[in-house]
Design a protein that fits this description.
Layout: E1 2-6, H1 13-24, E2 27-30, H2 31-41, H3 43-55, H4 61-71, E3 79-82, H5 88-100, E4 107-112, H6 115-125, H7 132-146, H8 148-155, E5 159-163, H9 168-180
Parallel strand pairs: 1-3, 1-4, 2-3, 4-5
Helix pairs in contact: 1-9, 2-3, 4-5
Bound molecules: adenosine-5'-diphosphate.
């Protein structure tokens, strides 16, 4: 099963994706993590990526799609994409990459939380790109570029909305239900 975790910065995608993947023996592909690892290599590419990330801007689509293509090589059971796709170009690119492998995005988990709670979580995390100014900008970028993917996946029948408020374990259970409880891994649920 190929799953996308969608939602605004700080909604808990990374936390929930890690736990879900550990419990279900899925591979966790976090583009935020891949990018932070690429920064450690430094060099010209690292500098370029750093500029986008520290400003809270999106790293260019072609670079992201290349990164995902190399990450797809040997996944096992299932894969959770966390923080990817973030634009419609990335979503179409992912569909194409998966189609070549005779795979598809089977499910999309949309995590939903109050804006105030999400901002609180991001600022508490204290990463170098987690200043109030950058966070505000990341939300604008999310609304403009990533939120349209909600409709993209809803039209394809793969979207599952999950309440992201409450205890980590409660949210985990909701995600588990959204992914494991409604029959076939392809196609729409009956209800
Ligand atoms: P958050 O959960 O707060 O959104 P991430 O670790 O997912 O944090 O992403 C941090 C930054 O990495 C983003 O603000 C963006 O600059 C960059 N980034 C991550 N994923 C992508 C992507 N799919 N496309 C473009 N940029 C990305």
């Amino acid at each position: 099963m190929r799953v996308v975790f969608l939602g605004p910065p700080g909604v808990g995608k990374g936390t929930q994706a890690s736990i879900f993947c550990r419990n279900n023996d899925f591979r966790h592909i976090s583009t935020g993590e891949l990018l932070r690892n690429a920064l450690e290599l430094d060099g010209e590419m690292g500098q370029k990526i750093r500029k986008f990330m520290e400003a809270g801007d999106l790293v260019p689509d072609d670079l992201m799609l290349g990164m995902i293509e190399s990450a797809l090589v040997d996944e096992q059971n299932g894969v959770v994409f966390d923080g990817f796709p973030r634009t419609e170009v990335q979503a179409r690119g992912l569909d194409d990459l998966l189609e070549k492998r005779n795979e598809r995005v089977d499910r999309v988990v949309l995590l939903i939380a109050d804006e105030a709670e999400v901002i609180r979580r991001v600022l508490a995390r204290g990463r170098s790109d987690d200043t109030l100014e950058t966070v505000r900008h990341r939300f604008e970028v999310y609304d403009a570029s990533t939120a349209p993917l909600i409709e993209y996946y809803r039209e394809r029948g793969t979207l599952r909305e999950v309440d992201g408020m409450g205890a980590i374990s409660e949210i985990q259970e909701r995600i588990h239900n959204a992914l494991m409880d409604d029959g076939s891994a392809n196609g729409r649920s009956a209800g």
